[in-house]
Design goal:
Helix content of chain A: 55-70%
Distance between the termini of chain B: 29 Å
Order of helices and strands of chain B: HHHHHHHHHHHHHHHHHEE
Number of domains of chain B: 1
Chains: A mainly alpha, B mainly alpha, C alpha+beta
Order of helices and strands of chain A: HHHHHHHHHHHHHHHHHEE
Strand order of the largest sheet of chain A: 1-2
Shape of chain B: globular
CATH superfamily of chain B: Formate dehydrogenase/DMSO reductase domain
Number of strands of chain B: 2
CATH class of chain B: Mainly Alpha
Radius of gyration of chain A: 23 Å
CATH architecture of chain B: Up-down Bundle
Strand content of chain B: under 5%
Oligomer: heterotrimer
Chain lengths: 465, 459, 240
């Protein structure tokens, strides 16, 4: 970290030659100590517990009805909101030609591997999701085509999720190609062979760079659209369409926005952890946390605004159907959880991150990020468990507001298993892909320089056109 | 790559103050033409006051017509100012510099024009102050009903108008001082008074910058609230199924940004063409704005799709017949197709090409298309929803705009452009201080053999 | 007054013949301007009560159904909360009342009125010279630019209440008769106090055929309908 200047001016630039950086990052990626193995074992054990939980729930409730699976649906939505959305933090600033994201973009992209877990969870959920024949889904019944489009909605949900996962892996791979090529000469054995295979003969020619940039642009844009659409479809088919009379059009968009908020929170918290346990103190600095914290504060405010937009319509309209939905979703059996969500996802970012010194720190955003992740965990439980608990899911009106469903042992174990599974996949992935994007920071060091501006050393950001 | 021309402060003063200090003759001709349009609208309004609201095409059940459509449109356009100025200022985007003031001025006049529409629209405009701050009917001790969105609306709009006007005046101060030093007679006194004793010392600059940031941050919530509240004029109504959707607030806001930024690009293209400001409003500015437009447009389109799908999804008869009317029945089918094509499907794929993004003429026409599309969007939301209100088919109706309404709509366009042009006659519409700061902070970084444009960043 | 009034109406769709007598009676009682053909063509005719005609079935087996439609005087009226100036509000007798000289003509209430029973004065009302003396002196002539709607003949409610007060008695069921009720040849319309359990309208409310139009909106209308009895078709309350 460069600290200099006559006024103690703080200029935040990485001072590493690309050679040093490659050594540090790749060294950490290769190293697997006993602590790492212990963590992997513990997580694997928790995943096994999750499988036990799944078996318990399956034995208890069976696969005939969707009602027992509310907590699993919540778990799916939770990892979609946090892990699967995380690559957005790499994609969006890249489009905005920002520089701060270079040091954390790989962390964000690596979370895409959790898609595998999402696909696994999706299988039982799709099996138990009631057929479209007797209820409404977003695939338009009898409007454009006679009856239902083939496979609605299961096939479409599955397709969207598969696209998201393939796209996520594709993006991770594409952004890694130059790094793999760099790494393949430095490590031997199986790892070296793997890197060399994955590097696809990368030599860094002008044509290859152009292809890589174009490819990453397309993959990034597609990922953005797919993940937003996946949030829309999942929140729609696994929550909204199971509640008759719920005509909340901001709801899917609100869920997608929650994904952006939680993505920032996830990357902030992961960056904090990676920075603590790895030699990355100089790579991931206040500037990264500050930049993400600003976006996280903005997205938290927007999150509340989207909720309010939905709420005010129901509250003002006051038709019986709307009042029932207010009860079911917010002010009835799940009131406590809802209040916790609002406190964690809106009040805490607002009240903590609005202070400049806190926002421009490492610990502040990390704490708020953790709170937001917890908040979204509760939020998904509130949404999906309440939707899954509606007995009569056909028709146009909610007949009665069901009681709150408290989690059984099976539910708790499943959720634990899913969260542990997501962490496990990430933990495994960080030992395969370099956790800091080496070519992006090298590019960054070329495009960011410090020069005196009338005696004051200032950072210069170059933006290639 | 090609380096940008080097501009000195003298060049900047000369070029950007040219419209103010030496006005060409065509400018007055244009002003006169627009003034005729405005006079026609004044005549139309006078006619409506004299004869009654019946001169409009509205009827039962379509009680809100073109004037409300146009109201929403202009409120939408007015959202560009803050969107560009405040957000880009806060995020330190270099390419904001030439666009900010044009955007803010467009905001002021679009919003002012929008604020006139309730006057045209209501049955007894001479009593409208009962619902508006600061008038209300407090003289007789009667409060307005704060439950009504028509009370929230004037509050939000007047706050936004005040805020934006302050914003513009504040950012004008250094430029006014330049004008003060270059004018004589009465104008010298006026500029001198308005520049509030600006000398350009460190303390004044510090205050100026702090105030700019503060206003940017404070005005953002107002900006979101204004169009949300406009959307709630519609969305809170349980009687109109097509409107009673929870997504309306964010949908309207993003739609407003979509049409607003498009409007700013059109205005910038016009300004560049009229005043030959190629060195100030450069191709790369259009490029950056068009990239922003792609994101905004796609987000807006997502909201549009969601709103539409969730409208059909419950499979309920009245809503379905409304959507059928919107999409398949003449003439709404035609407007719907034009709206979707012009609002998204044609311009956005074009903007994906860098050749289009840096072509000013094409950018002008595509952004104009967006605004035609967005006008039709409001039309398609407002009118058919009223025509197919509730399942009581006996009352389903239709609507034809009257000539007076068309004159008022046309006049509103003249009024906004008249306002922006008049402003550009008296004040620099590209901020001088910002342009100079941009030049001062501009530099280049050598990467290999190429020079990449760069900027100093103070954090 | 001992008990608070809650005026309401019952409309027996089975008895309605669609004769439009109520429409004419309302027109003359309440100083509603003459609806000329032009007004109908412009969809600007003002009828505080109207007979909505729906066709049922396919030609040639087609039946006309008549639904007298008037302001429903809802308990939770959606039109009230959207008025910025309190020109329409709920009074303590269960009436949704319109304050003419308060109205500024935003027409917000008309939009948020699911039954389309609020009317806007697009033009200054004019009557032919010959009808000048026909105007009811108890009722305001509305100017242009404001909303108006059924008042349940509030002038008759007031007059009856005042007369009863002067005679030192309570207003009894059947004392207050709005113009439409008075003129209905088949007694399809019944008016009275819904809070008075012994009133005819309260009895009809308990009828098995009772339904309220657009009840799902939860606005609690004070006008109740009694479904058509059709020996040949099973479908009832098709608009509810």
């Amino acid at each position: 970290m460069h600290n200099g200047g006559p006024h103690g001016h703080h200029v935040d630039l990485l001072e590493r030659s690309s050679e040093q950086a490659a050594g540090e990052v790749l060294g950490w990626t290769e190293r697997t100590g006993p602590v790492y193995l212990l963590v992997v074992l513990v997580l694997a054990a928790l995943v096994a517990l999750g499988v036990v939980g799944f078996a318990m729930t399956a034995a208890d409730g069976g696969l005939d009805s969707h009602h027992p699976w509310g907590y699993l649906a919540a778990a799916l939505a939770f990892i979609m909101t946090t892990s699967l959305s995380a690559p957005l933090v790499a994609i969006a600033p890249r489009f905005g030609k920002a520089h701060w994201n270079r040091y954390v973009s790989r962390i964000a992209e690596t979370w895409g591997v959790v898609g595998l877990l999402a696909l696994v969870i999706l299988i039982p959920l799709l099996l138990t999701l009631p057929p479209a024949d007797d209820r409404n889904t977003m695939l338009l019944y009898d409007t454009i085509v006679e009856g239902w489009p083939v496979g609605a909605p299961h096939l479409y949900v599955a397709l969207v999720m598969v696209f998201v996962v393939i796209n996520g892996f594709g993006l991770l791979w594409a952004s890694n190609i130059p790094d793999f090529a760099l790494a393949k000469g430095r490590v031997g054995g199986l790892r070296g062979a793997l890197y060399s295979k994955l590097a696809l003969g990368w030599v860094g020619s002008k044509r290859q760079w152009r292809a890589l940039r174009a490819g990453m642009g397309v993959l990034g844009a597609l990922y953005f659209m797919f993940i937003v659409w996946a949030h829309t479809v999942i929140s729609f088919d696994f929550a909204q369409s199971l509640v008759p009379g719920m005509r909340d059009s901001v709801f899917p968009a609100w869920q997608a926005l929650g994904g952006l908020q939680a993505a920032l929170a996830t990357v902030i918290v992961t960056s904090f952890v990676v920075r603590k346990i790895g030699p990355f103190r100089d790579y991931i600095g206040v500037n990264q946390f500050w930049s993400m914290a600003k976006l996280m504060l903005a997205s938290s405010l927007l999150w509340m605004y989207f909720w309010w937009s939905g709420f005010i319509i129901y509250w003002y309209g006051k038709t019986p159907a709307q009042q029932d939905l207010l009860q079911l979703m917010w002010f009835g059996p799940y009131r406590t959880i809802f209040i916790i969500t609002i406190l964690l996802c809106f009040a805490s970012p607002l009240l903590i991150l609005m202070w400049n010194p806190v926002r421009k720190s490492i610990l502040g955003p990390t704490i708020v990020g953790s709170l937001i992740i917890i908040g979204h965990f509760f939020d998904k439980i509130r949404i999906y468990v309440s939707s899954y608990s509606v007995e009569e899911y056909t028709g146009h009106v909610l007949k009665e507001v069901p009681e709150a469903v408290t989690p059984g042992a099976g539910d708790a174990l499943m959720m634990l298993g899913v969260v542990a599974g997501a962490l496990l996949l990430f933990t495994l992935a960080v030992k395969v892909v370099p956790i800091v994007n080496l070519w992006e920071i090298r590019e960054g060091s070329m495009l960011q320089v410090v020069r005196p501006f009338k005696r004051l050393p200032l950072k210069i950001l170059a933006k290639p056109e | 790559m090609q380096l940008r021309p080097v501009l000195t402060e003298r060049d900047i003063n000369r070029d950007l103050l040219r419209p103010v200090l030496a006005t060409p003759i065509w400018f007055y001709i244009l002003l006169g033409g627009l003034a005729i349009g405005v006079c026609a609208a004044i005549g139309g309004f006078a006619w409506a006051i004299n004869h009654g609201t019946g001169v409009y095409g509205i009827n039962r059940p379509v009680m809100w017509g073109f004037l409300l459509v146009n109201f929403v449109f202009w409120v939408g356009i007015s959202h560009a100012g803050v969107m560009l100025s405040a957000i880009l200022r806060l995020s330190n985007a270099e390419w904001r510099r030439p666009a900010t003031r044009a955007a803010e001025v467009l905001t002021i006049f679009a919003l002012g024009t929008a604020a006139l529409h309730p006057l045209f629209h209501t049955g007894r405009p001479w009593r409208i102050y009962w619902s508006m701050p600061p008038g209300y009917d407090l003289g007789r001790g009667i409060w307005p009903d704060i439950r009504s969105p028509f009370v929230w609306d004037p509050t939000a709009i007047s706050t936004y108008l005040t805020g934006t006007t302050l914003f513009v005046i504040l950012l004008l101060i250094p430029d006014l001082a330049v004008l003060r030093d270059r004018s004589s007679g009465l104008m010298h006194k006026v500029y001198g008074f308005m520049s509030l004793g600006w000398k350009g010392n460190t303390r004044q600059w510090k205050l100026q910058i702090i105030a700019g940031f503060l206003l940017s941050a404070l005005i953002l919530p107002v900006f979101v609230s204004v169009h949300s509240i406009v959307s709630w004029d519609f969305a809170v109504q349980i009687a109109v199924e097509g409107w009673n959707a929870t997504i309306f607030a964010p949908y309207f806001v993003i739609g407003a940004v979509h049409s607003g930024v498009a409007g700013v690009i059109s205005v910038l293209a016009l300004l560049r063409w009229m005043f030959r400001w190629e060195n100030y409003i450069r191709d790369d500015h259009f490029d950056a704005l068009a990239r922003l437009m792609i994101v905004v447009a796609t987000a807006w389109f997502y909201f549009f799709v969601i709103e539409f799908l969730l409208g059909i999804y419950p499979n309920e008869e009245p809503e379905l017949s409304l959507r059928m009317l919107q999409v398949f029945e003449w003439p709404f089918s035609a407007t719907f197709i034009i709206f979707v094509l012009m609002g998204y499907l044609v311009p956005v794929p074009l903007w994906l090409l860098k050749r289009v993004r840096t072509n000013v003429a094409l950018m002008f026409w595509t952004t104009l298309m967006v605004n035609i599309g967005m006008w039709l969007e409001r039309f398609i939301i407002i009118i058919p929803s009223l025509m197919r209100k509730q399942p009581l088919t006996f009352n389903w109706g239709s609507y034809n705009p009257s000539p007076i309404e068309l004159i008022l709509v046309g006049g509103s366009f003249c009024l906004v452009f008249l306002g922006v042009l008049t402003f550009s006659k008296f004040f620099p519409i590209i901020p001088l201080a910002d342009a100079k700061e941009g030049v001062a902070l501009e530099t280049h970084v050598r990467v290999g053999k190429v020079m990449v444009p760069a900027a100093y960043r103070e954090e | 007054m001992a008990v608070e009034r809650k005026w309401g109406m019952a409309v027996d769709a089975d008895k309605c013949t669609g004769c439009q007598a109520c429409v004419v009676a309302c027109q003359s009682e309440n100083n509603i301007p003459i609806n000329e053909p032009d007004h109908f063509l412009q969809r600007r005719a003002i009828q505080w009560i109207r007979i909505e005609r729906y066709w049922e079935g396919e030609f040639p087996d087609v039946k006309a159904r008549f639904v007298p439609m008037l302001c429903q005087h809802c308990e939770n009226a959606p039109c009230e909360s959207v008025c910025p100036v309190f020109a329409t509000y709920h009074n303590n007798e269960g009436l949704n009342v319109q304050v003419y000289n308060r109205c500024i003509g935003t027409r917000f209430c008309a939009n948020n009125d699911p039954w389309n029973v609020r009317f806007f004065n697009f033009w200054e009302p004019v009557w032919p010279e010959t009808l000048r003396n026909q105007l009811n002196t108890d009722v305001t002539v509305r100017s242009r630019g404001i909303m108006e709607k059924c008042t349940f003949c509030i002038q008759r409610i007031r007059r009856t209440t005042r007369d009863a007060g002067m005679e030192g008695r309570e207003v009894e069921d059947g004392d207050v008769v709005p113009a439409c009720v008075q003129s209905c040849p088949t007694n399809a319309l019944v008016f009275g106090d819904l809070n008075d359990a012994s009133s005819q309208v309260a009895h009809l409310r308990e009828d098995g055929r009772q339904y309220r139009i657009l009840d799902h909106l939860g606005t609690e209308p004070s006008v109740h309908y009694l479904a058509k009895i059709d020996p040949y078709a099973a479908s009832e309350g098709e608009h509810a």
